[in-house]
Amino acid sequence: MSRAVVTPLRRPERSTSARQPARPRKTVALGNAAAPDSLAARLFLLAYDPERGRLTARSKLGKLLRAAILVDLQLSGHLDDDNGRARLTTRASAPVDPVVGGVLAELRAVGPRRWRRWIDRRGGVTVRQVRDELARAHLIRVEPYRVLGLFPSARITLRHPLVRRHILQSARDTLRPSRLVSRVDLRDAAIVVLASTADLRTVVTKDQRTRHKDRLAQLAVRVGPVVPALKKSLQQAQASAGG
């Protein structure tokens, strides 16, 4: 006796005109992982070289991340430029990112100072804080180990390489001549300009810096006073190391 084949019933399709609450779309291309909102966190991911499996530009990374946080605070309306100094606004809302919020608390405790003053402060601490936040967000894996069995260090690997690729592509798209400088997203512009200033070649190669020199200068004007402050800070650090 043959068995009856039971065909499962299909649920009726919902009408597209039905009033249903909109659901947030999942970013499938990023492996269901969201890119971090903080510019410093994004630049940390971009400083990671997937081919070498390690962070690059370590000596400059602290200053670069501090500069990124200052740009973040300026773009969010927490800071204004006051004749070359970072001045707090009356905006009351606290930043969502705890590292950005910590830098804002530093500024509140001290008061207006030149932008470079804040770039030069606590670079190593900031790098570790940004790294730890990325680890908590499961975007990187941090594995402690000892160099030569003696010196403590940490091995970093990407959990979601597509997130980094997406951030990199958005930043590099700002260099396309077909896009008006005035219409480029300022956060993407900040990433590519800060990376270029710090010679972060995992973002902007030497050849790209040469070919897009004028456009990078135009984007830097839009990003604001943090860019020249970062440049001076890096130049001074290089001169001190050379001397």
Task: Describe this protein's structure.
InterPro entries: GPP34-like (IPR008628), GPP34-like_sf (IPR038261). It is a peripheral membrane protein. It is a single chain. The chain has 243 residues and is an alpha+beta fold. The chain is 48% helix and 12% strand. It has a three-stranded antiparallel β-sheet. It has a two-stranded antiparallel sheet with strand order 1-2. Strand 1 and strand 2 form a beta hairpin. Helix 7 crosses helix 9. The radius of gyration is 22 Å and the shape is globular. The protein starts with 38 loop residues before the first helix and ends with a helix. The N terminus is likely disordered.
Which residues sit in consecutive blocks of at least 5 with pLDDT less than 50? 1-29
Q: Give the integer mean of the pLDDT values.
A: 87
Task: Find the structural class using helix and strand composition.
Answer: alpha+beta
Rg for CA atoms? 22 Å
Run of helices and strands: HEEHEEHEHHEEHHHHH
Gap from first CA to last CA? 94 Å
Helix tally?
10
Q: How large a portion of the residues is in β-strands, by DSSP E?
A: 5-15%
Q: In what order do the strands lie side by side in the largest sheet? A: 3-4-5
What is the general shape?
globular
**Helix share bin:** 40-55%
Question: Could you give a short account of the major beta sheet?
Answer: 3 strands, antiparallel
The overall strand count is 7
